[in-house]
Amino acid sequence: MVRARRKSEVDYAAAARQWTESNKDGRKPTMRDVAELAGVSKKTVSRVINDSPLVNEATRKGIQGLIKEIGYRPDPQARGLASRRSYLVGLITDNPTPQYVVNIQHGILDVLRKTGYELVVHPCDRKSETFLDDARRFIEVQKLYGVILTPSVSEDERLAEIMRELGCAYIRIASIALDMERRMIVTNDRVGGREAAHHLAKLGHTRIAVIVGRRSFRSSHERRAGFEEGLAEHGITLPQEYVLQGDYTFESGLALGAEILDLDPPPTAVFASNDEMAAGVLQALHVAGQTPPDALSVVGFDDFETATRVWPRLTTARTPARRIGRLAAERLFEFDDEDSTAVGENETMPQLIERDSTRRHRTS
Amino acid sequence: MVRARRKSEVDYAAAARQWTESNKDGRKPTMRDVAELAGVSKKTVSRVINDSPLVNEATRKGIQGLIKEIGYRPDPQARGLASRRSYLVGLITDNPTPQYVVNIQHGILDVLRKTGYELVVHPCDRKSETFLDDARRFIEVQKLYGVILTPSVSEDERLAEIMRELGCAYIRIASIALDMERRMIVTNDRVGGREAAHHLAKLGHTRIAVIVGRRSFRSSHERRAGFEEGLAEHGITLPQEYVLQGDYTFESGLALGAEILDLDPPPTAVFASNDEMAAGVLQALHVAGQTPPDALSVVGFDDFETATRVWPRLTTARTPARRIGRLAAERLFEFDDEDSTAVGENETMPQLIERDSTRRHRTS
DNA sequence: GGTAACATTGACACCGGTGACATTGGTGCC
DNA sequence: GGCACCAATGTCACCGGTGTCAATGTTACC
What we know:
The structure is a homodimer.
Chain A lengths: L11 H11 L8 H8 L3 H8 L7 H14 L5 H8 L4 E6 L4 H15 L5 E6 L7 H12 L3 E4 L7 H10 L2 E6 L9 E4 L1 H14 L5 E5 L5 H16 L9 E3 L4 H13 L6 E4 L2 H13 L9 E6 L3 H4 L5 E4 L2 H12 L14 E2 L2 E3 L11
Chain A binds a DNA duplex through α3 and α5.
């Protein structure tokens, strides 16, 4: 085609019209089409797309209008192939609670939707022998832009080391800072545990049991530690026989709930370190013909859906999962920012939600 | 490099060793590397990778061994760019129940894991104005290999039409066949409704209410129709005032549960067309100081986690969501098979799980 | 007027594969 | 021996972008 000598000679609107008319067969426009219509080289179009400052303002505006008009979308595969990256973000999880995972997903997608990046989900089994190799292959083959890790895989140092080695951006969601600040979203579980303790203590409970979660989860230790700290502030100590080992599943809560009833002296309240186990305890009480919270006050952790489905509804420390997902995605895109003074928000505080599963201890 | 004249002259094992030694810098091997080591052209390697029959058996074995040895993985971006496709499968959902979505995801991944395809999740809002455009762009830009649709987006004919137009493989998960057999996974909700009815009828209930789900969901109509059919088989009719309009959320179940208590004459049982609403009814009863199932028998639908978390545990018609996801993914990869005699399994039957939320009606 | 410095833009190879078509060396058969 | 045919493999352009570096036009300044 004849190329215009000066920008002013190119009528972008006319070019767009021309395209629309000549493209009867509905072919998707490519960068070449845009370039030819605009009377520039592909490279210039490429610069516009990538927000390069090396483009004349008038040219930029014109090309942007043209792109919009004819509905051009850069091909992520071609882009990725040439620049050795991709426009995919991975979510690697091994969390047993579906509600958590979905909320995280939604939070991440809230952010990705505006960007053109897509989310690829990758549940895994940390106990599998091939876990690390699988993860590495996934990241390497897909050339992921970045990866978001949830507990407990987020706590695996070997995995983090692989990400660094591959030069892949990553954000680890965990209870405590295990890495550089900008690579973590910290969910301060300790504070949540403490608040749970304060709540029960203020209600007058002193004989309080705790059901801890799976050992391999950092959150389990944090929640318990926070809880003990909180109790200590009220002068309450936690006897060893009041500490029960669960694994974050409903079933473990159910089984341990039955055991709690046999403790002597019986506790008047229990802190289960997630909602699933708390729900299990409630069910154990029902099975035994008891009526919570009269028989036993129960505090959960997370405030996922289960918390409001059970009866009585759970008093629980809320983990803002969707927000955590959002933060993680936001931080992921700032991963390379050298400007460390501008570290974005990266810590969330659990908030105690008081419902019906706890009540004042009757000093009958 | 010197190319061997006859295959027998090429020592694949030696070539692999040579690669391993010379590749100190840990570069990922490309198809060209494999081709040069094997003494063949890229095209031949390409044929091996794509299981083309046009390759000599000895050559194939040798190259396969070499590939394994040096850990070559074809680049999905390059592959996709050249063949105008991708190795991504999309999951488009607008389902309000996270547990359903996660289970479907896991089912799909059970199948994808073996294939090298990845799953890209895409929740959407069917009521959004840009919903169809967004979906089209997603599919077109990512050049998705295929898409799996869950209710209720799966029931949108306009979306299905877009998929056909784009030539994208798709599987629709829905309550009834809306499309060619091979493009559907049918979850026979009608049968589930019928079983729920039988169950309650056999327990001696005659005054039975039903809470239907969101109107825009086909399943809602199917579950209700099946339920009415089931009742009819026992000579029971469903009066209009016993039909309550819910929307599949817990909150709607909670509100309608309270209303049920005011009905005159009061029903002795209720069929809520999903577990969330059934859980809402149970909670409404608890709030009112009533004790299910003595006050009211409640049947749910789905058997997601909620069903076993509440008290009493729900009698419910199980929807095998993970299996549905698996089937959908399997069918997706058979999408182009002309061999229509070999239509795979594509229908699942709900199964009634009897628990504690229903009991025999006392004809006092 | 000449030159350095800058702002813009373009040329071209390349990313790592695949598609379409050509080539090669047997084999079977008349 | 000549020819058709097939199996096995190769050639080369191309998919749709980006990286590198060169080229151009403008402006500032001595």
